[in-house]
């Protein structure tokens, strides 16, 4: 444990083998600590070293030993509320992989109607949608539960926002938990396991305190000139694409095609709003571009879209047409890279 101004935590005090070293340690002290912990060249002392502990753990897991209890497969029926086709397809595939069936609604109004007609074990609720957003839908559902003495339906927010106060905003609206997009299979399963029947809490972990007014976010530093292409790096992150291919399997090509067909529509909306000087009109298309591009590994386009969205929300985005053109140019790079990738993907 690295000491300094902090005291030794109680859980470490009772943890067994503990070594302390001051933050201002001299050369050689750290090696000596490791030697003592690992039992390297420390004759004459009868301690159980980490190496011996590892050997004991291996012996404990040998055939004939009682198996360690692991969590069983998930089961249940959830309502997925998502308007974006790319994000929806990824979420649907992930839900199937972790063993859950689902229905789909493309806005909060439809979700309320479906939840009123059919029992669901949980809801995955997008926050930004047309017709009715996830915040309004959740507040309405909580009001109905109170008025009609309905059981509390677990609602888990899904949002591509990464701004300070987003989690608090979700909890204040009555949501029970929060997932960032693009969705991660492990976190999705872990979160749903917490809320589904058999594992779920009967009430939220804690009634969220009334949120304080968020401090004004610092205005983003916006560039007046587009970033040079050679400074942007690869158009797509092949590691992210590889993981997505593993998740989507035979549906990967269709997902990429949806992205390539859908993105130009959002870019046109972005350009139209920029030409009209409509900063608020740039929010929705840039928000959609941000999350779908991240799903496909187009990280520079995702960051650029995030940059546009945040600037537009705060009303301080500079040179609107240039920002829209830059997003369009970057998508051309992404499109070429994805088309080349599809040629390498087996049918």
Per-chain topology:
Blueprint: E1 2-3, H1 10-13, E2 21-22, H2 29-38, H3 50-60, E3 77-81, H4 85-97, E4 101-105, H5 108-117, E5 122-126, H6 134-148, E6 155-159, H7 166-172, E7 177-180, H8 185-195, H9 238-248, H10 252-275, H11 283-295, H12 299-314, H13 320-344
Parallel strand pairs: 1-2, 3-4, 3-5, 5-6, 6-7
Q: What report would you give on this structure?
A:
- The longest helix has 25 residues, at 320-344.
- 49% of the residues lie in helices and 8% in strands.
- The chain has helices at residues 10-13, 29-38, 50-60, 85-97, 108-117, 134-148, 166-172, 185-195, 238-248, 252-275, 283-295, 299-314, 320-344; strands spanning 2-3, 21-22, 77-81, 101-105, 122-126, 155-159, 177-180.
- The strands form two sheets. It has a five-stranded parallel beta sheet, sandwiched between helices. Strands 1-2 form a two-stranded parallel ribbon.
- It is of the alpha/beta class and 347 residues long.
- The chain folds into three domains: 2-60, no CATH class; 77-195, Rossmann fold; 229-344, Up-down Bundle (Four Helix Bundle (Hemerythrin (Met), subunit A)).
- Helix 5 (108-117) runs parallel beside helix 6 (134-148) and helix 10 (252-275) packs antiparallel against helix 11 (283-295).
- The chain is built from 13 helices and seven strands.
């Amino acid at each position: 444990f690295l000491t300094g101004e902090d005291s030794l935590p109680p859980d470490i005090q009772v943890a067994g083998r503990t070594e302390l070293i001051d933050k201002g340690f001299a050369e050689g002290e750290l090696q000596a600590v490791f030697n003592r912990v690992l039992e390297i060249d420390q004759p004459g002392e009868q301690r159980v070293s980490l190496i011996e502990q590892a050997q004991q753990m291996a012996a404990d897991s040998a055939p004939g030993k009682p198996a360690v209890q692991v969590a069983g497969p998930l089961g249940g029926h959830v309502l997925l509320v998502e308007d974006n086709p790319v994000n929806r397809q990824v979420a649907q595939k992930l839900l199937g992989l972790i063993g859950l069936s689902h229905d789909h609604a493309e806005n909060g109004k439809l979700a309320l109607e479906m939840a009123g007609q059919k029992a669901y074990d949980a809801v995955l609720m997008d926050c930004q949608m047309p017709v009715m957003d996830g915040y309004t839908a959740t507040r309405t559902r909580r009001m109905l539960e109170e008025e009609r003495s309905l059981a509390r339906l677990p609602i888990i927010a899904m949002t591509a926002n990464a701004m300070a106060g987003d989690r608090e905003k979700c909890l204040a609206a009555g949501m029970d938990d929060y997932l960032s997009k693009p969705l991660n299979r492990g976190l999705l399963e872990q979160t749903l396991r917490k809320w589904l029947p058999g594992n779920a809490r009967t009430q939220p972990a804690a009634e969220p305190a009334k949120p304080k007014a968020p401090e004004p976010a610092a205005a983003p530093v916006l560039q007046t000139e587009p970033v040079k292409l050679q400074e942007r790096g690869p158009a797509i992150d092949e590691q992210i694409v590889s993981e997505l291919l593993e998740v989507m399997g035979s549906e990967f090509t269709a997902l990429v095609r949806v992205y390539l067909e859908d993105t130009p529509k959002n870019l046109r909306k972005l350009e139209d709003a920029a030409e009209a000087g409509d900063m608020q009109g740039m929010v929705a298309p840039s928000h959609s571009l941000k999350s779908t591009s991240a799903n496909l590994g187009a990280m520079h386009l995702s960051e650029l879209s995030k940059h546009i969205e945040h600037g537009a929300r705060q009303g301080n985005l500079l040179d609107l047409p240039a920002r829209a053109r830059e997003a369009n140019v970057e998508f051309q790079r992404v499109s070429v890279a994805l088309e080349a990738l599809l040629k390498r993907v087996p049918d």
